[in-house]
Amino acid sequence: MDIKSKNINTIISPELKTNFKNFPMVPRVIFGAGCFGQLGEILLPKRVNSEAPFIFLVDDVFEGTDLISRIPLIFNDQIIFISADEEPKTDQVDALVHKIKNDYDHLPSGIIGIGGGTLLDLSKAVAIMLTNKGNAYQYQGWDLVKKPSIYHVGIPTISGTGAEVSRTTVLLGPEKKLGINSDYTTFDQVLMDPDLTKGVPKEQWFYTGMDCFIHCIESLNGTYLNAFSQSYGEKALELCKEVYLEDLQMDEARNKLMMASWHGGMSIAYSQVGVAHAMSYGLSYLLGVRHGIGNCLVFQHLKEFYPEGVELFNKMKEKHNIQLPKGICSELTNDDFEIMTNVALGLVPLWENAIGKEWRTIITPEKLKSIYQKI
Ligand SMILES: [Fe+2]
Predict the structure, then answer these.
(1) How far is the CA of 364 from the centre of ligand 1 (A)?
(2) How much is the pTM?
(3) Ligand 1 ion: Cβ-proximal residues, 5 Å cutoff
Protein backbone atom coordinates (compact mmCIF):
# COMPACT_ATOMS: atom_id res chain seq x y z
CA MET A 1 0.00 0.00 0.00
CA ASP A 2 1.49 3.37 -0.93
CA ILE A 3 1.32 6.33 1.43
CA LYS A 4 -1.46 8.07 -0.53
CA SER A 5 -3.94 5.17 -0.41
CA LYS A 6 -3.11 4.55 3.26
CA ASN A 7 -4.11 8.14 4.07
CA ILE A 8 -7.40 7.77 2.22
CA ASN A 9 -8.15 4.59 4.16
CA THR A 10 -7.45 6.41 7.39
CA ILE A 11 -9.91 9.14 6.46
CA ILE A 12 -12.81 6.83 5.65
CA SER A 13 -12.16 3.98 8.08
CA PRO A 14 -15.40 3.71 10.15
CA GLU A 15 -13.72 2.37 13.28
CA LEU A 16 -11.54 5.47 13.39
CA LYS A 17 -14.44 7.88 12.91
CA THR A 18 -15.09 10.13 15.91
CA ASN A 19 -18.02 12.35 16.68
CA PHE A 20 -16.64 15.67 17.88
CA LYS A 21 -18.44 18.88 17.03
CA ASN A 22 -16.71 20.93 14.35
CA PHE A 23 -18.30 24.25 15.12
CA PRO A 24 -17.83 27.60 13.42
CA MET A 25 -16.49 30.66 15.19
CA VAL A 26 -16.95 34.34 14.42
CA PRO A 27 -14.14 34.95 11.91
CA ARG A 28 -13.73 38.66 12.65
CA VAL A 29 -14.14 40.63 15.84
CA ILE A 30 -13.28 44.16 16.84
CA PHE A 31 -13.28 45.19 20.51
CA GLY A 32 -12.73 48.48 22.29
CA ALA A 33 -14.46 51.59 23.60
CA GLY A 34 -15.36 53.74 20.60
CA CYS A 35 -14.73 51.07 17.92
CA PHE A 36 -18.27 51.65 16.56
CA GLY A 37 -16.59 54.54 14.68
CA GLN A 38 -14.86 51.96 12.46
CA LEU A 39 -18.09 50.34 11.25
CA GLY A 40 -18.09 52.26 7.94
CA GLU A 41 -14.62 51.08 6.94
CA ILE A 42 -15.45 47.50 8.00
CA LEU A 43 -18.57 47.39 5.82
CA LEU A 44 -17.16 49.12 2.73
CA PRO A 45 -15.37 46.10 1.19
CA LYS A 46 -18.41 43.90 1.93
CA ARG A 47 -20.76 46.02 -0.18
CA VAL A 48 -21.74 43.93 -3.20
CA ASN A 49 -22.69 46.97 -5.33
CA SER A 50 -24.51 50.27 -4.99
CA GLU A 51 -27.88 48.55 -5.52
CA ALA A 52 -27.32 46.05 -2.71
CA PRO A 53 -27.91 47.89 0.56
CA PHE A 54 -26.93 47.22 4.11
CA ILE A 55 -29.97 46.77 6.31
CA PHE A 56 -29.54 47.87 9.91
CA LEU A 57 -31.91 46.21 12.37
CA VAL A 58 -31.77 48.44 15.44
CA ASP A 59 -33.41 48.29 18.86
CA ASP A 60 -36.01 51.05 18.87
CA VAL A 61 -34.77 52.41 22.23
CA PHE A 62 -32.05 54.08 20.14
CA GLU A 63 -34.49 55.93 17.87
CA GLY A 64 -33.54 59.63 17.88
CA THR A 65 -30.29 59.08 19.79
CA ASP A 66 -26.76 60.01 18.84
CA LEU A 67 -25.99 56.39 17.96
CA ILE A 68 -28.33 56.54 14.96
CA SER A 69 -26.53 59.54 13.49
CA ARG A 70 -23.29 57.53 13.72
CA ILE A 71 -24.61 54.65 11.57
CA PRO A 72 -22.64 54.86 8.30
CA LEU A 73 -25.54 54.92 5.79
CA ILE A 74 -24.82 55.30 2.08
CA PHE A 75 -26.75 54.69 -1.17
CA ASN A 76 -30.07 53.01 -0.39
CA ASP A 77 -29.11 51.55 3.02
CA GLN A 78 -31.98 51.29 5.45
CA ILE A 79 -32.49 51.36 9.21
CA ILE A 80 -35.39 49.29 10.54
CA PHE A 81 -36.25 49.97 14.18
CA ILE A 82 -37.52 46.98 16.12
CA SER A 83 -38.92 46.75 19.63
CA ALA A 84 -37.13 44.32 21.92
CA ASP A 85 -39.99 44.31 24.43
CA GLU A 86 -40.87 40.78 23.39
CA GLU A 87 -38.79 37.73 22.58
CA PRO A 88 -38.01 37.35 18.86
CA LYS A 89 -40.54 35.32 16.88
CA THR A 90 -40.40 33.25 13.69
CA ASP A 91 -43.23 35.21 12.05
CA GLN A 92 -41.40 38.45 12.85
CA VAL A 93 -38.41 37.07 10.92
CA ASP A 94 -40.67 36.12 8.00
CA ALA A 95 -42.24 39.60 7.95
CA LEU A 96 -38.82 41.29 7.92
CA VAL A 97 -37.59 39.06 5.09
CA HIS A 98 -40.77 39.82 3.15
CA LYS A 99 -40.32 43.56 3.65
CA ILE A 100 -36.66 43.53 2.60
CA LYS A 101 -37.41 41.47 -0.53
CA ASN A 102 -40.28 43.85 -1.34
CA ASP A 103 -38.22 47.00 -0.84
CA TYR A 104 -35.33 45.99 -3.10
CA ASP A 105 -34.69 44.22 -6.41
CA HIS A 106 -31.43 42.79 -5.12
CA LEU A 107 -30.43 40.82 -2.07
CA PRO A 108 -28.85 43.14 0.51
CA SER A 109 -25.08 43.28 0.95
CA GLY A 110 -25.63 42.42 4.57
CA ILE A 111 -27.68 42.60 7.75
CA ILE A 112 -26.33 44.53 10.71
CA GLY A 113 -27.97 43.87 14.08
CA ILE A 114 -27.59 46.56 16.74
CA GLY A 115 -29.09 45.78 20.14
CA GLY A 116 -29.38 43.04 22.73
CA GLY A 117 -29.99 39.32 22.26
CA THR A 118 -33.37 39.91 20.58
CA LEU A 119 -31.93 42.11 17.85
CA LEU A 120 -28.87 39.91 17.38
CA ASP A 121 -30.99 36.78 17.07
CA LEU A 122 -33.40 38.47 14.64
CA SER A 123 -30.50 39.63 12.49
CA LYS A 124 -28.99 36.16 12.31
CA ALA A 125 -32.36 34.64 11.39
CA VAL A 126 -33.14 37.27 8.73
CA ALA A 127 -29.69 36.75 7.15
CA ILE A 128 -30.44 33.01 6.93
CA MET A 129 -34.01 33.35 5.66
CA LEU A 130 -33.03 35.75 2.86
CA THR A 131 -31.32 32.84 1.11
CA ASN A 132 -33.37 29.86 2.33
CA LYS A 133 -36.89 29.06 1.15
CA GLY A 134 -40.00 28.75 3.31
CA ASN A 135 -40.71 30.01 6.83
CA ALA A 136 -38.34 30.50 9.72
CA TYR A 137 -40.14 27.97 11.94
CA GLN A 138 -39.21 25.21 9.49
CA TYR A 139 -35.57 25.71 10.42
CA GLN A 140 -35.96 25.59 14.22
CA GLY A 141 -33.78 22.69 15.24
CA TRP A 142 -30.28 21.47 14.57
CA ASP A 143 -28.56 21.78 11.18
CA LEU A 144 -31.65 22.23 9.02
CA VAL A 145 -30.32 25.25 7.10
CA LYS A 146 -29.16 24.26 3.63
CA LYS A 147 -27.80 27.45 2.06
CA PRO A 148 -25.26 29.95 3.41
CA SER A 149 -26.81 33.11 4.84
CA ILE A 150 -25.90 36.58 3.62
CA TYR A 151 -23.14 38.55 5.36
CA HIS A 152 -24.26 39.56 8.84
CA VAL A 153 -22.76 41.62 11.63
CA GLY A 154 -23.63 41.64 15.34
CA ILE A 155 -23.20 44.76 17.46
CA PRO A 156 -24.27 44.11 21.07
CA THR A 157 -25.53 47.06 23.12
CA ILE A 158 -25.99 45.02 26.30
CA SER A 159 -23.74 42.25 27.63
CA GLY A 160 -24.56 38.76 28.77
CA THR A 161 -26.58 36.74 26.29
CA GLY A 162 -23.61 35.43 24.30
CA ALA A 163 -25.79 35.82 21.18
CA GLU A 164 -22.85 37.63 19.56
CA VAL A 165 -20.80 34.44 19.52
CA SER A 166 -23.31 31.58 19.32
CA ARG A 167 -24.25 29.40 16.32
CA THR A 168 -27.93 29.64 17.19
CA THR A 169 -30.74 32.14 16.99
CA VAL A 170 -33.43 31.40 19.56
CA LEU A 171 -36.95 32.10 18.29
CA LEU A 172 -40.49 31.66 19.52
CA GLY A 173 -42.31 29.66 16.88
CA PRO A 174 -45.90 28.50 16.55
CA GLU A 175 -45.08 25.22 18.31
CA LYS A 176 -41.91 25.76 20.25
CA LYS A 177 -39.21 28.06 21.46
CA LEU A 178 -36.10 26.71 19.81
CA GLY A 179 -33.03 28.00 18.04
CA ILE A 180 -32.05 27.78 14.41
CA ASN A 181 -28.78 26.01 15.19
CA SER A 182 -26.57 25.91 12.13
CA ASP A 183 -23.10 26.60 10.80
CA TYR A 184 -24.60 29.51 8.81
CA THR A 185 -26.10 31.21 11.87
CA THR A 186 -22.83 32.51 13.34
CA PHE A 187 -22.03 36.16 12.64
CA ASP A 188 -19.39 37.00 10.00
CA GLN A 189 -18.28 39.99 12.03
CA VAL A 190 -18.87 41.14 15.59
CA LEU A 191 -18.23 44.67 16.80
CA MET A 192 -17.91 44.95 20.59
CA ASP A 193 -17.87 48.54 21.77
CA PRO A 194 -18.40 48.65 25.56
CA ASP A 195 -19.45 52.32 25.30
CA LEU A 196 -22.65 51.19 23.55
CA THR A 197 -23.76 49.52 26.81
CA LYS A 198 -23.67 52.81 28.77
CA GLY A 199 -27.38 53.57 29.00
CA VAL A 200 -28.63 50.11 30.01
CA PRO A 201 -31.12 50.28 32.94
CA LYS A 202 -29.88 48.61 36.12
CA GLU A 203 -32.41 45.76 36.26
CA GLN A 204 -31.77 44.83 32.65
CA TRP A 205 -28.01 45.02 33.22
CA PHE A 206 -28.43 42.59 36.10
CA TYR A 207 -30.77 40.10 34.42
CA THR A 208 -28.80 39.98 31.17
CA GLY A 209 -25.50 39.68 33.04
CA MET A 210 -26.98 36.84 35.06
CA ASP A 211 -27.78 35.07 31.79
CA CYS A 212 -24.00 34.94 31.30
CA PHE A 213 -23.40 33.90 34.90
CA ILE A 214 -25.93 31.07 34.52
CA HIS A 215 -24.30 29.97 31.23
CA CYS A 216 -21.07 29.54 33.21
CA ILE A 217 -22.68 27.63 36.10
CA GLU A 218 -24.64 25.34 33.79
CA SER A 219 -21.65 24.67 31.56
CA LEU A 220 -19.13 24.13 34.37
CA ASN A 221 -21.49 21.79 36.26
CA GLY A 222 -22.67 19.84 33.23
CA THR A 223 -21.80 16.33 32.09
CA TYR A 224 -20.77 17.71 28.67
CA LEU A 225 -17.93 19.69 30.23
CA ASN A 226 -14.55 19.42 28.54
CA ALA A 227 -11.29 21.37 28.71
CA PHE A 228 -12.40 23.67 25.90
CA SER A 229 -15.66 24.72 27.61
CA GLN A 230 -14.07 24.79 31.02
CA SER A 231 -11.34 27.22 30.02
CA TYR A 232 -13.86 29.73 28.68
CA GLY A 233 -16.42 29.08 31.42
CA GLU A 234 -13.95 29.62 34.25
CA LYS A 235 -12.73 32.88 32.77
CA ALA A 236 -16.29 34.13 32.24
CA LEU A 237 -17.29 33.17 35.78
CA GLU A 238 -14.27 34.99 37.21
CA LEU A 239 -15.22 38.12 35.22
CA CYS A 240 -18.87 37.90 36.38
CA LYS A 241 -17.73 37.71 40.01
CA GLU A 242 -15.53 40.79 39.53
CA VAL A 243 -18.32 42.75 37.86
CA TYR A 244 -21.14 41.82 40.24
CA LEU A 245 -19.33 41.34 43.58
CA GLU A 246 -16.49 43.87 43.46
CA ASP A 247 -16.59 47.63 43.11
CA LEU A 248 -15.03 48.22 39.72
CA GLN A 249 -14.83 51.50 37.83
CA MET A 250 -17.79 51.79 35.44
CA ASP A 251 -15.72 51.55 32.26
CA GLU A 252 -13.75 48.58 33.58
CA ALA A 253 -16.99 46.83 34.53
CA ARG A 254 -18.44 47.44 31.04
CA ASN A 255 -15.29 46.06 29.37
CA LYS A 256 -15.20 43.00 31.60
CA LEU A 257 -18.89 42.16 31.29
CA MET A 258 -18.63 42.34 27.50
CA MET A 259 -15.76 39.85 27.58
CA ALA A 260 -17.62 37.68 30.13
CA SER A 261 -20.54 37.46 27.71
CA TRP A 262 -18.23 36.40 24.88
CA HIS A 263 -16.42 33.78 26.99
CA GLY A 264 -19.67 32.46 28.49
CA GLY A 265 -21.06 32.06 24.97
CA MET A 266 -17.89 30.24 23.88
CA SER A 267 -18.17 27.94 26.87
CA ILE A 268 -21.71 26.77 26.06
CA ALA A 269 -20.87 26.55 22.35
CA TYR A 270 -18.83 23.45 23.11
CA SER A 271 -20.95 22.12 25.96
CA GLN A 272 -24.57 23.03 26.68
CA VAL A 273 -26.76 24.96 29.11
CA GLY A 274 -28.84 23.21 31.77
CA VAL A 275 -31.82 23.22 34.13
CA ALA A 276 -32.44 26.98 34.38
CA HIS A 277 -32.42 27.44 30.62
CA ALA A 278 -34.67 24.46 29.94
CA MET A 279 -37.26 25.68 32.45
CA SER A 280 -36.90 29.32 31.45
CA TYR A 281 -37.80 28.35 27.87
CA GLY A 282 -41.09 26.98 29.23
CA LEU A 283 -41.82 30.23 31.10
CA SER A 284 -40.99 32.25 28.05
CA TYR A 285 -43.10 30.11 25.71
CA LEU A 286 -46.25 30.30 27.83
CA LEU A 287 -45.96 33.72 29.46
CA GLY A 288 -43.56 35.62 27.19
CA VAL A 289 -41.14 36.12 30.10
CA ARG A 290 -37.87 37.61 28.79
CA HIS A 291 -34.88 35.28 28.71
CA GLY A 292 -32.64 36.99 31.30
CA ILE A 293 -35.27 37.48 33.98
CA GLY A 294 -36.79 34.05 33.22
CA ASN A 295 -33.43 32.42 33.94
CA CYS A 296 -33.16 34.31 37.23
CA LEU A 297 -36.73 33.39 38.26
CA VAL A 298 -35.93 29.71 37.79
CA PHE A 299 -32.33 29.72 38.97
CA GLN A 300 -33.13 31.04 42.46
CA HIS A 301 -34.97 27.73 43.12
CA LEU A 302 -32.26 25.39 41.80
CA LYS A 303 -30.19 24.93 44.95
CA GLU A 304 -30.38 21.14 44.67
CA PHE A 305 -28.74 21.24 41.23
CA TYR A 306 -26.37 24.19 41.56
CA PRO A 307 -25.80 24.88 45.30
CA GLU A 308 -22.71 27.09 44.98
CA GLY A 309 -24.09 28.91 41.95
CA VAL A 310 -27.34 29.78 43.72
CA GLU A 311 -25.43 31.03 46.76
CA LEU A 312 -23.32 33.32 44.56
CA PHE A 313 -26.42 34.46 42.69
CA ASN A 314 -28.09 35.46 45.97
CA LYS A 315 -25.01 37.46 46.99
CA MET A 316 -25.01 39.32 43.67
CA LYS A 317 -28.75 39.96 43.89
CA GLU A 318 -28.35 41.36 47.39
CA LYS A 319 -25.38 43.55 46.52
CA HIS A 320 -27.34 45.22 43.74
CA ASN A 321 -30.60 45.30 45.63
CA ILE A 322 -32.54 43.41 42.99
CA GLN A 323 -36.05 42.25 43.90
CA LEU A 324 -37.27 39.48 41.65
CA PRO A 325 -41.00 39.54 40.91
CA LYS A 326 -43.09 36.99 42.79
CA GLY A 327 -46.24 35.03 42.07
CA ILE A 328 -45.60 34.71 38.32
CA CYS A 329 -47.09 31.19 38.25
CA SER A 330 -49.58 31.59 41.10
CA GLU A 331 -52.67 31.70 38.90
CA LEU A 332 -51.72 29.15 36.30
CA THR A 333 -53.91 26.14 35.57
CA ASN A 334 -52.82 22.51 35.35
CA ASP A 335 -52.92 22.84 31.55
CA ASP A 336 -50.57 25.81 31.74
CA PHE A 337 -48.09 23.88 33.87
CA GLU A 338 -48.31 21.01 31.42
CA ILE A 339 -47.47 23.30 28.49
CA MET A 340 -44.44 24.76 30.26
CA THR A 341 -43.28 21.35 31.43
CA ASN A 342 -43.57 19.89 27.93
CA VAL A 343 -41.54 22.71 26.40
CA ALA A 344 -38.85 22.25 29.06
CA LEU A 345 -38.76 18.45 28.82
CA GLY A 346 -38.43 18.65 25.04
CA LEU A 347 -34.96 20.16 25.38
CA VAL A 348 -33.21 16.81 25.69
CA PRO A 349 -29.57 17.94 25.21
CA LEU A 350 -29.97 20.46 28.06
CA TRP A 351 -31.15 17.76 30.48
CA GLU A 352 -28.52 15.32 29.33
CA ASN A 353 -25.90 17.92 30.02
CA ALA A 354 -27.37 18.90 33.38
CA ILE A 355 -28.12 15.47 34.81
CA GLY A 356 -26.67 12.81 32.49
CA LYS A 357 -28.13 10.17 30.15
CA GLU A 358 -30.44 8.87 32.89
CA TRP A 359 -32.02 12.28 33.48
CA ARG A 360 -35.57 10.98 33.08
CA THR A 361 -35.28 9.06 36.36
CA ILE A 362 -34.82 12.37 38.23
CA ILE A 363 -36.61 14.96 36.09
CA THR A 364 -40.34 14.25 35.93
CA PRO A 365 -43.27 16.51 35.00
CA GLU A 366 -44.27 16.60 38.70
CA LYS A 367 -40.78 17.67 39.69
CA LEU A 368 -40.78 20.55 37.20
CA LYS A 369 -44.28 21.58 38.20
CA SER A 370 -43.22 21.82 41.84
CA ILE A 371 -40.39 24.18 40.86
CA TYR A 372 -42.61 26.28 38.57
CA GLN A 373 -45.12 26.62 41.41
CA LYS A 374 -42.52 28.41 43.53
CA ILE A 375 -42.01 31.12 40.91
FE1 LIG B 1 -29.01 32.21 27.96
Answers:
(1) 23
(2) 0.93
(3) 211
